[in-house]
């Protein structure tokens, strides 16, 4: 149980690190959500898609993948937020890297939830050992 708690805390820290790195090293650039990239397929039909964003930076067009995304219960590609303009943190030195969308906070909530579950499992294991 302690291993699972530490694993959840590690994943939460990794998510926060990636989001903060994107925010610190990137520059705010306006982009448009043009599609999705299938990120993961889980149990019971859950499928996660990351946003695919088209942005223009200094006269060049880039297609980047966002850290944020949407989860569905089927194999059908979602249509949520398609065509939406958003501001992303884009690092021109690493244009193929993942970007973070300004104003989307799903990753922070997920990291907070994982951190709380990890801490709770460690505390419960510690209490049960006493």
TrEMBL record:
Q: Can you tell me where the transmembrane regions are?
A: 6-24, 109-129
**Could you tell me which species this protein originates from?**
Lederbergia ruris
Name this protein carries in UniProt: DUF3592 domain-containing protein
- Name the domain of life: Bacteria
Query: Is the Membrane keyword given for this protein?
Result: yes
Which UniProt keyword terms apply here? Membrane, Transmembrane, Transmembrane helix
């Amino acid at each position: 149980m302690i291993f699972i708690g530490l694993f959840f805390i590690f994943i939460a820290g990794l998510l926060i690190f990636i989001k903060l790195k994107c925010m610190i090293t990137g520059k705010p650039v306006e982009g448009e959500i043009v599609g999705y990239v299938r990120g993961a397929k889980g149990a019971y039909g859950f499928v996660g898609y990351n946003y695919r964003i088209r942005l223009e930076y200094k006269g060049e067009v880039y297609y980047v993948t966002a850290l944020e995304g949407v989860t569905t219960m089927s194999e059908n590609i979602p249509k949520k937020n398609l065509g939406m303009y958003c501001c992303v943190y884009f690092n021109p030195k690493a244009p193929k890297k993942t970007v973070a969308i300004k104003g989307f906070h799903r990753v922070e909530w997920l990291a907070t939830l994982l951190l709380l579950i990890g801490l709770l499992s460690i505390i419960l294991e510690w209490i049960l050992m006493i």
